[in-house]
Design a protein that fits this description.
single chain; 176 residues; alpha+beta; five-stranded mixed β-sheet
């Protein structure tokens, strides 16, 4: 999919673009956490004399793996970001950021693919779980049986902790 905006020859004014986003964008970036997507991205470009601003809005769903049961989970994603587009002049130290893009004056288009990908990824929730009662019941049963088996066979939980040696070291140090 092409996420480019043609900027050469644009007169001053407002321009609207729409881009559908599917799972192919995330496969292209080899993102294994996002299995699929059904998003619509709207970009409104305001062009003035010597400046350009893009308002990027996204809305839709992204399919990820549930953190609890590992089944597919459709997560709603919505965001609105502003992105300034600046022209680099000869000799200027041009460094892009997540707030603006630097383009060479000879460039005819701006590719928003990386920004759209980033905006979607950073707007995903940290905890990705089904609402209560919607997780795969077989997986939940399996998890609780494993947790019960682990709890009954383990007398002292610190024995299996990677920090148990540190605890002993600190206790010894405090005695000395």
């Amino acid at each position: 999919m092409d996420y480019k905006i043609h900027i050469s020859g644009l007169a001053q004014g407002s321009y609207r673009y729409e881009f559908p986003v599917g799972g192919d964008l995330f496969r292209e970036y080899e993102n294994q956490q996002i299995k699929d997507a059904d998003m619509n991205i709207e970009v409104v470009v305001e062009k003035g004399s010597g400046w350009m601003n893009a308002k990027v809005k996204g809305k839709g769903t992204v399919t990820v793996e549930c953190d609890r049961c590992l089944d597919d989970l459709n997560v709603p994603v919505e965001f609105a970001q502003n992105l300034a587009i600046r022209s680099a002049h000869f000799g200027e130290d041009a460094e892009e950021s997540d707030e603006y893009i630097i383009v060479d004056p000879s460039e005819t288009e701006v590719d928003l693919k990386q920004f759209i990908y980033d905006y979607i990824c950073i707007n995903l929730p940290l905890s990705r779980v089904h609402p209560d009662g919607e997780c795969n019941p077989k997986m939940l049963e399996r998890l609780s049986s494993l947790q019960a088996a682990q709890g009954s066979g383990q007398q002292d939980k610190d024995v299996y902790s990677p920090f148990s040696g540190l605890k002993e070291f600190l206790e010894k140090r405090d005695k000395d």
